[in-house]
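Progress narrative, Year 2. Work on TraB/GumN family protein from Fulvivirga lutea advanced from sequence curation to structure prediction during this period.
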Amino acid sequence: MIRSLLLVLICATTLTAQHQSALYKIEGNGLNEPSYLFGTINFLPKFGYFVPDEVKNAIIASRVFVTKTDLRRKTQQKFTEAVKIPNDGTVNKYLTEEEQKQLRAIIEEYGGRNQAYDNFYSKLQPIILVTATTALTLQYNITYPERELEDIAKDNRLKFNSLSDVDEEIAAFEQFPIEDQIEALKYTINNFDDHLSDYNKMVRAYMKEQNMEVVKEETFKATNESEKFKEVYYDNRTEKWLPDVVKLIKSKPTFFALGVPHIIGESGLVSLLEKEGYTITPVIIDFAPAKTSN
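Result:
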């Protein structure tokens, strides 16, 4: 579960409807078959979550399944090591004694017992702890949507691809200012109920309201709204990926599963592809139990 926890944490603003779906169809500009963009969240409550039929059908209609980085265990392990505090440091040096006590209590309350704080959690970068503490509260009521999408793609024999490698991911993460990380963690520790309310708001916006702007806002709120992190980790990388995205959709019908902030907004792929001349259409989806279920 710890490894999964670390799989850590849409365009033109003129049309509100463009933000009311996590799924977008890419057509036009010479494409013979459509491709799809699907905005994801790292983890969601498992109970009540179903991959929408519309999303399954979009995967089945595609021939290539694309994620941000590849999903192999070796890649995950490398990222896990990279997000630890350098030189065997601990997060304690950034926190007051009271904040250390509160953070330990949060982790122990939700299952991080048996020296888990000292042996593992305290060694993580502050922003990773923001995500990890949220995931821990879900305990066994947690699902990782990207993994579920991957399983559907495997079942339908899609080819797998990624837009970046783990080294690029790590390099971008390393530019997250430590001051913003610390402030984000301190907010989480000192306002944990409010922090969980923010997460629940994001889940509602994603699954119930299909308001991707709120999802993006809440994602950035959890990073202390760090402009530097937004620019380096999201905006710059998304723009860098655009030529590869265009190449892929010209070659074969492709399904892209990427974090919501990579999809919407001025620097998101919906907007960038529209500027390239493609027609991007939001697809109405339903997170209710699949219509084909018994």
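Residues 213 and 280 are 17 Å apart (CA to CA). The chain has a mean pLDDT of 88.
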